[in-house]
Specification:
This protein is an alpha/beta fold and 497 residues long. The protein folds into two domains: 160 residues, Leucine Aminopeptidase, subunit E, domain 1 (3-Layer(aba) Sandwich); 317 residues, 3-Layer(aba) Sandwich (Aminopeptidase). It has 15 helices and 19 strands. The strands form four sheets. Strands 7-8-10-9-13-17-14-15 form an eight-stranded mixed beta sheet, with helices on both faces. A six-stranded mixed beta sheet has the order 1-6-5-2-4-3, with helices on both faces. The radius of gyration is 24 Å and the shape is elongated. 54% of the residues are buried. The structure holds ligand BES, manganese (II) ion and zinc ion (ZN). The site of ligand BES has 15 residues, from loops.
Length: 497
């Protein structure tokens, strides 16, 4: 969806949206609309008991001057509580209302809508950004849907005297939204369409945006000794892939920021087969890789001044006559051996070799991996936070800050020697599971064994965040694209000048 910015007169059709602060003065935009409608806005606010509280809405259908449209009063909350994250949600709310309706166009009236601690162009751009992020649907496979089930909204515009300045700020945000939408598309695709081979091809297409993309197949990975990753894909008819995406927008001397993603295109559990009920969710077990791919596109679109490499391990975890068995011992690229006691704990096996490759091939300034790694993280943090595991306090705080700035929040989880002790194996260097206790932390302890001392590293478990079972402020039910905005902000705040 295109968001347009204009200083011109308001359109006479579509939905006109006027944000109103709680207890604040009426904005210029409000007052002029009120005049145009013969005082309808003030009357509606009174009758509708509208105070401007966050989330409150009063809709005027066909008021004077806008006979073919409507005007929506939108609560913006207390002026002192306006933040960029709140502005995103403010912009998204009317889109949620009108996205699938009869309306084709939505116009925000933002003249005079300002907040104390935020520059007005940034505030208006943030509202546009939130609106665009909410205007997403994955409808490619609907062929018989009724019109009312498909998006009606075709146009979102921002109307304010600062529209042109806001449009400049919006350009980068628009690029980030493209990355979020790419991640949502990848996560939404079913596994018969998006498998390691087709996924790698889609990544290759990103070269048209200025990324360098390299794809390793099974032969190349075998040569590198990636027995851990290859063991997971062994039961699949599809060839496992490792995709390396580079955005080199920084100084040549700048060490790259490395993002590593779990890309299990479908996780049946393998021979340790999952129950059938709910197994369909495992099409989105590549959510970590989607976030990495999405952020690479976002960085390219906004021409980030940093060197960033995205590495994703793409496999399909299938049961088969040739599939890996529980109890098999595999040798990872690092040389460490792993006893695979449960073939359903496969994400860590994929990441292990992807992490080693990252350190062998690059000289990372930092490594952050993202993965839908454990069900246990959902038990701990529900669908509110991603779990963040790292021995590095500074890195955790940088990621926590990026989470707060974007609303894609992470919560630090414990990772220490006790968790490492829990993955000792009787016959190999480690086993890939321990008991149910602290399952997310033992998974993180497993990954840590593949990161060399001295390299700042964090693992983010997004199992509870990649898919929204309920509508969220910035996305409908379905793929959230979680992680793209978090990682983009992490790069912007720490590695760009
Ligand atoms: N992909 C799953 C984790 C998952 C579960 C993601 C639910 C999203 C929603 C992962 O590969 C897995 O199966 N983990 C097991 C690990 C166990 C066998 C040690 C789990 O969490 O049950
Ligand atoms: Mn699994
Ligand atoms: Zn998995």
């Amino acid at each position: 969806m295109n968001v347009t910015f204009s200083k011109a007169a308001l359109p006479k059709t579509g939905a006109i949206v006027v944000p109103v602060f709680q207890g604040g003065n009426r904005t210029v935009g409000f007052r002029s609309l009120n005049k145009m409608t013969g005082g309808a806005l003030e009357r509606a606010a009174k009758v509708g008991d509208f105070s401007g509280k966050t989330g409150q809405q009063v809709e005027l259908i066909s008021p004077k001057g806008f006979e073919n449209g409507s005007v929506l009063l939108l609560g913006a909350g207390k002026p002192g509580e306006m933040t960029l994250v709140n502005a995103h949600k403010l912009g998204a709310r009317p889109v949620a209302k009108y996205f699938k309706s009869h309306e084709k166009a939505l116009t925000f009236v933002l003249d005079g809508f300002t907040a104390n601690d935020i520059a007005t162009d940034e505030l208006h751009a943030a509202i546009a950004y939130g609106a665009r992020l909410r205007a997403y649907a994955f409808d490619v496979y609907r062929t018989t849907a009724k019109r009312s089930e498909m998006p009606s909204l075709k146009k979102i515009s921002i109307n304010s005297s600062e529209a042109l300045e806001a449009r400049k700020v919006f350009v980068d945000l628009d690029g980030i939204a493209d990355g979020v939408f790419l991640a949502r598309d990848l996560v939404s695709e079913p596994a018969n369409i998006l498998h390691p081979e087709s996924y790698a091809e889609r990544c290759k297409e990103l070269e048209s945006h200025g990324l360098k993309v390299e794809v390793l197949g099974e032969k190349a990975m075998a040569k590198l000794g990636m027995g851990s990753l290859l063991g997971v894909g062994q039961g699949s008819r599809k060839e496992s892939k490792l995709v390396i995406m580079k955005w080199l927008g920084g100084d040549e001397a700048q060490k790259p920021v490395c993002f590593v993603g779990k890309g299990v295109c479908f996780d049946t559990g393998g021979i340790s087969l999952k129950p059938g009920e709910g197994m369909w969710d495992m099409k989105w077990d590549m959510g970590g890789s989607a976030a990495v791919t999405g952020v690479m596109l976002a960085l390219a679109k906004r021409k980030a001044t940093a060197n960033v490499v995205g590495i994703i391990g793409l496999v399909e975890n299938m049961p088969d006559g040739d599939a890996q068995r529980p109890g098999d011992v595999v040798t990872s690229m690092s040389g460490q051996t792993i006893e695979v006691l449960n073939t359903d704990a496969e994400g860590r096996l994929v990441l292990a070799d992807a992490l080693t490759y990252t350190q062998e091939e690059f000289d990372p300034a930092v490594i952050v991996d993202l993965a839908t790694l454990t069900g246990a993280i959902i038990i701990a943090l529900a669908h509110e936070y991603a779990g963040c595991f790292s021995p590095d306090d500074e890195l955790v705080s940088a990621l926590t800050d990026a989470g707060k700035a974007t609303g894609e929040e992470v919560w630090r989880m414990p990772l220490n020697k006790a968790h490492d002790d829990m993955i000792k194996s009787e016959i190999a260097d480690m086993k890939n599971i321990s008991g149910r206790e602290g399952g997310s932390s033992t998974a993180a302890a497993f990954l840590k064994r593949f990161v060399k001392d001295g390299i700042p590293w964090a693992h983010i478990d997004i199992a509870g965040m990649a898919w929204a079972y309920k509508e969220k402020p910035l996305c409908a039910k379905g793929a959230s694209g979680f992680g793209v905005r978090l990682l983009d902000e992490f790069v912007r705040a720490n590695y760009e000048d």
